[in-house]
Amino acid sequence: MFCLLLIHFLSSTSNSKIMNEDGQTKKESISSQNGNNEWSQYRGPNRDGVAISNTSIKAWPNGSQPFQVWKKPIGEGFSGIVIAGEQLITAFAEDDTEFLVSFEKTTGKEIWRTALGEMFVEEMGNGPRSTPTIDGDFAYILNSYGDLYCVSIKSGKQIWKVSLTDKFKIKRPLRGFSTCPLILGETLIIHGGGKNSAFIGLNKKTGKTIWKTGESTAGHSSPFTAVINNVEQSIEQSIYF
Fold this sequence. Notes:
Elements: E1 2-8, E2 17-19, E3 25-27, H1 30-33, E4 67-74, E5 82-84, E6 87-94, E7 97-104, E8 110-118, E9 133-135, E10 138-142, E11 147-152, E12 158-163, H2 164-167, E13 182-184, E14 187-191, E15 199-203, E16 209-213, E17 224-228, E18 231-235
Antiparallel strand pairs: 1-4, 2-3, 5-6, 6-7, 7-8, 9-10, 10-11, 11-12, 13-14, 14-15, 15-16, 17-18
């Protein structure tokens, strides 16, 4: 059993008030002060593990220790948690099914859940591996078997689905698919695998193939973007045949 927790980190520099778990008023959290309310994809806004913040502290101010706001038991899996406005979105497995699930950020109340197919069972751990990517009103997630989904974050409704194994004849990795989708403009980029499909670009609105290239086995690395020689590029680690 896994748990989703929300912890408030308090600052002594704000006069704003919030309610803690005992109903007492506490000062506003640092995260709400600095405007860093979005963590929309794997490793953050720029996929570099850096939280953009105007506030930093070297020690907890006196009387302003972090406290637990709520705790929510969830199922099995390795998916990270992303922030989309007032929602926390992640993937996990329960009752032999993998799900993409949305929670209220302030209360932990479940908003919606969307089934992503059969639960992946494996000796190193069960459940989904990929972290969802948020772009506008949509979440993109790859399940352990290679099914790529686009889901509305307003309703949890499935918009489209593409099977990487069926469409591109990609062999599932031993430990399951775990790469995280990357959005670059109107294109969703995913690390696939196989011949002429190591890297795949899909229309993010429809799931239709725009391009595919390269040869490699299906790996567990996720792409990121960088500007090199004034050209924005998608960079990915892979193992070539």
